[in-house]
């Protein structure tokens, strides 16, 4: 079991650092929003590997789902009002 | 019987993850946004469905919950693929090939 | 036998994960990044099912269920934003 879980956790940690750096250094807004959603997606899988399914479910619902949804919704709303 | 189902299920599971790898390879290699949408959603949908079926064969007691996930994936993933392709077409992204039947038929059919 | 195939499937899923992550980081257009996001979510659902099988706990499947619902919402909203309409 550890043969599967520890390498998965390492891959997830590297991917989290990479997408967090992308969210910091990218120049387009939508990419930054998607990258920050990706960070919480990987964090939630990492919580699952640490045997905390309830924390993982909250992170998936709030961090990855709702925050991305809200950010993109507000972005499109801002663009529409600046067009008028 | 249980042993046999477990071996069969692990074969189906591995086949599903192989389809996931093919989808990732398509996402890596394809030259064009539309072909990337094609590879990244169609192949991974089949891969996830095969993986869920394999998990249900390994653990028959989990079949109901796995079936629920399977139904959700089967409904949402092709829909998001179609929506993304339409958004890419309306944003004016060009095909690499030179035929665009959707633009010839008129935008209202999209 | 089943454990061996679980490890093999984990390696394959990790390879697919790396390829899709490359497309997310390098993708020249925003649409490519949304496609890579969708693919990464689907691959993560498969990874969660593998973890549930390895740890032998059915509770973990609820997280996969939440994912399969919520990633769809995010991709649809991002596609509407890219479309440029309302």
Overview of the structural elements:
- The complex is a heterotrimer of chains A (84), B (110) and C (86).
- Chain A is an all-alpha fold.
- Chain A is 90% helix and 0% strand.
- Chain A is built from three helices and no strands.
- The longest helix of chain A is centred in the C-terminal third of the chain and has 31 residues, at 53-83.
- The radius of gyration of chain A is 15 Å and the shape is elongated.
- With 110 residues, chain B is mainly α.
- The longest helix of chain B has 28 residues, at 2-29.
- Chain B starts with a helix and ends in a 5-residue tail after the last helix.
- The radius of gyration of chain C is 15 Å and the shape is flat.
- Classes of the chains: A mainly alpha (84), B mainly alpha (110), C mainly alpha (86).
- The A-C interface holds A 1, 3-5, 7-8, 11, 15, 18-19, 22, 28, 30-31, 33-35, 37-38, 41-42, 44-45, 48-49, 51, 53, 56-57, 60-61, 64-66, 68-69, 72-73, 75-76, 80 and C 6-7, 10, 14, 17-18, 21, 24-25, 30, 33-34, 37, 40-41, 44, 47-48, 50-51, 54-55, 57, 59-60, 62-63, 66-67, 69-71, 73-74, 77-78, 80-82, 86.
